[in-house]
Amino acid sequence: MAACRRVPLLLLMSVFLYMHPIRGQKSANSVIANTAVRVNIQAQNQAAVPAAVNGGSPVVAASPPRRRTSGWKLAEEGACREDLTRLCPKHSWNNNLAVLECLQDRKEETEIAADCNHLLWNYKLNLTTDPKFESVAVEVCKTTISDDVHSQGEVIACLEKGLVREAEEQPGAHAIRPDCKKAIMRVAELSSDDFHLDRYLYFSCREDRERFCENTPAGEGRVYKCLFNHKFEEAMSEKCREALTTRQKLITQDYKVSYSLAKACKTDLRKYRCSMDTNMPRAREARLSYLLLCLESAVHRGRTVSGECQGEMLDYRRMLMEDFSLSPEIVLHCRGEIEAHCSGLHRKGRTLHCLMRVGRGDMGTIDNLCQKALQTLIQEADPGADYRIDRALNEACESVIQTACKHIRNGDPMILSCLMEHLYTEKMVEDCEHRLLELQYFIARDWKLDPILYKKCQGDASRLCHAHGWNETSEMMPPGAIFSCLYRHAYRTEEQGRRLSRDCKVEVQRILHQRALDVKLDPELQRRCMTDLGKWCSEKTESGQELECLQDHLEELVSECRDVVGNLTELASEDIQIETLLMRACEPVIQSHCHEVADNQIDTGDLMECLVQNKHQKEMNDKCAVGVTHFQLVQIKDFRFSYKFKMACKEDVLKLCPNIKKKVDVVLCLSTTVRNDTLQDVKEQRVSVKCRKQLRVEELEMSEDVRLEPELYDSCKQDIGRLCQNVAFGNAQVIECLKENKRQLTQRCHHRVFKLQEVEMMDPELDFQLMRVCKQMIRRFCTEADAKNMLQCLKQNKNSELMDPKCKQMITKRQITQNTAHNMNYRLNPVLRKSCKADIPKFCQSILNKATGDSELEGQVVSCLKLKYADQRLSPDCEDQIRVILQESALDYRLDPQLQIHCTDEISRLCPEEAAAQEQTGQVEECLKVNLLKIKVEGCKKEVLNILKESKADIFVDPVLHTACALDIKHQCAAIPPGRGRQMSCLMEALQDKRVRLQPECKKRLQDRIDMWSYAAKVAPAEGFSDLAMQVMTSPSKTYILAMIGLSLCILFLFGLLCGRMTKRLMQEQKDR
């Protein structure tokens, strides 16, 4: 140890109280008595004492002369005799130190005569100037003090520094005997009321006192506190700063070294029994940290602690946060981290925040003992109760507090919550953000460090989680586990019982909202997922990205990490407001469309459902849409992540779909069960009503984005990249793109797209694009229509003048899909399948035989049925459905897949203007009919001839002719029902009847049809007797042809009769011969 110089303080007095007699068996008290000074009271009043009381610097030379009487005692002085008799027990009168301690302690409670006060002050001051004090100090603490110490004034300072070095286990520190330690601390304590009594500090800080504390009167520790408050000022001398730091370190070891703190909190310490633990060593009991923890515990439990004491505690808590070196555990266990990362940042709490940042993992790893020391210091200082305790945070966040949190009372614990609410917002500044997260990292690891949470939840924590007192810990239930217990109970249902109180649940939700901002604020998540965070999410550095990353890789996580991520996701599905960043991004759409749901105190998944339903509103911004979609993508990994679905269907899942975890598989399992029960007309559905209702919601949500259908997305990922690379996800746009490019899809994707179309055609409500584009038209035309007949209703109103063009275009697309029969079950048109289930195998079996399971028949079956319709051979139900298809395709050629396939080139060559028309009213078909002779492609010519043939059966399938002859049909054929060519025959007879005058346009169109049919008969003769008969029956000259056929049959019959009689006569003549 370096040489220690003597300091004029009270070491001798303390030493002799506890040590054995020295040299000649003289007692310590005897030595004190022989070296004591009889003080002239009048001289005190005139010289030294006034100087001290008035804040001046008393000079030793001004002290009264010494009286070296061997038996002098304080008890014999008249100035203190009355107070001594009143306050101190008689057995202590012979011991000057006992008398001094008694009067020193009791003067805080009762008034002591001024002359006695002056006597005591000078007695302490003058005793420290006697050389014999030094000799006794050297004798008692000889293992600490070097032999060559002879300089005046630094012995005690050296011993105090040695005590600090030993506590911090600094290199080269000497061991100090317990009795010496006790003596040093007692000397520091007795000099705590007036800084003049600490001679080393007095001489070190004389100029600084004049500079910073000129108007601060001496006494009651006021000058100490003033100098402490200016310790880190640039103008403070280094020597004074060092002396102040040493005294602060002594205060942390024994709070009584601070006169003001000991005085202010004396009653409270006694009241709350903070010094009554007989099992605890006195040294531990006297530590500043123990006092702070004991009294803070009382405050947090709602007990009354005097305002004066709380003010003193606030000062010393701030002192601990400002200077890390005042905590020996920090100095001892964090030495490596300070040297590596935090050197040169000693002032204003910057080193401590640097260590916090290291503890967060932002600047490397930290030793466990250092982490524990930091956590302990945060609990002792308790900055969560008052942000001003943390000077670094206070200075960094001052501007944010003035703007964002100005409505909160200064020093209120809610300031920290307010700052967290504005984290990552425009009002937050970077420096404040760093300091806030560094502090919150440690507060999050002990639920008691959030005073509001502790106040509201201490009863619940004790009742449900077996929590102990504020400053008590348990290995069975560590502080970090208490909050996990609380939030597990926060979301229990009434049936599960043992729920949190409402106030506590609100606070738990607040903490969860804060933790969602940064994964490091969740201790359990960070501990269990440390490996996975490094493996999968090392590049995800933006706020909120780490948890999203873990959710994206849920299946690849280790089991303990997967469990905690799954629990958090399941929790968020019930209360999406926990996702703070998402809520901020979605604020506009929440205010516009979901405010009623958001205002509910209890969120049971309604808010997320509302956001999903309004995901494509104009108020929805990109950040919100991405966040909502991400949550939907996470939900498909496990049905538990959809709270409403889980609660509605958990019993059905256990009964019907056990061992299935993925939500998409559960939805498929349940929907298949519902469909099978419906088709089989079972009396009682196996899936409950509430589950079927929620199942519909889930199916509708999944139809919006191809990524929400994992099997479809995985099967078509390659095709999406090739055909739909510029199409954005969402709004079912990618799905629509795949449908439009169906012929170019790979076989696997093609099969999946068909499966999707099959479901949509069976249940049009699941067709997201159709329902979105035609939303207003559905409200206008189909409010009373069943969901499964929605498309049929829209088709019926398609040509209405009030129909929206975009909706009409979408309806046309769906009609094209329906008419393009995909496989032998024709599941894309359920109405046609049901109506023609007997006709299809009867008339079109040859086409079915050629089809493979996944082959695209491109409307061949529908074309087959059309021809049979023209032959009038279909059943009534099937005929009605084919008539509708014919009417629709006659207006829009795109609804006839065979015509579109075979005539694409011819349409482009012969009818480009008609095809380019936005509104299709049959112009393309009419153009092809008119240009029949110019058509070169045989397949196209055949299809046009089929159209002509079909038009004979019903004028409704020839929209141009029907429009031209509408008035004539009304006048001439009103009594004739449509179908089977009846109205067409009526018009043809009227055309031949010279008495009837048809409209010129109708007459012209009819004549054109006759010419076309004549040409068709030539180029496409009947293929069989049935076709020939049908051609005759549908011919405009049917009467003439039938008459000629009848006449021919009559002539043949008569000829037969004549020939028969001649033959009979000849045979008779031969017999007669």
Automatic annotation (TrEMBL):
The keyword Protein transport belongs to this UniProt entry's keyword annotation: no
Topology term for the membrane: Single-pass type I membrane protein
A Pfam match: Cys_rich_FGFR
GO MF term (any one): fibroblast growth factor binding
InterPro entries from the UniProt entry: Cys-rich_GLG1_repeat, Cys-rich_GLG1_repeat_euk, GLG1
Name of protein: Golgi apparatus protein 1
Organism for this UniProt entry: Oncorhynchus tshawytscha
Keyword terms: Glycoprotein, Membrane, Repeat, Sialic acid, Signal, Transmembrane, Transmembrane helix
Signal peptide interval: 1-24
Superkingdom, taxonomy of origin: Eukaryota
Name of the gene this protein is made from: LOC112224626
Transmembrane residue ranges: 1040-1060
Cys-rich GLG repeat ranges, renumbered to this chain: 175-235, 304-363, 427-494, 499-558, 619-678, 686-746, 873-936
Protein location: Golgi outpost; Membrane
Major localization listed first in the record, in broad terms: Golgi
One Gene Ontology CC term in the entry: Golgi membrane
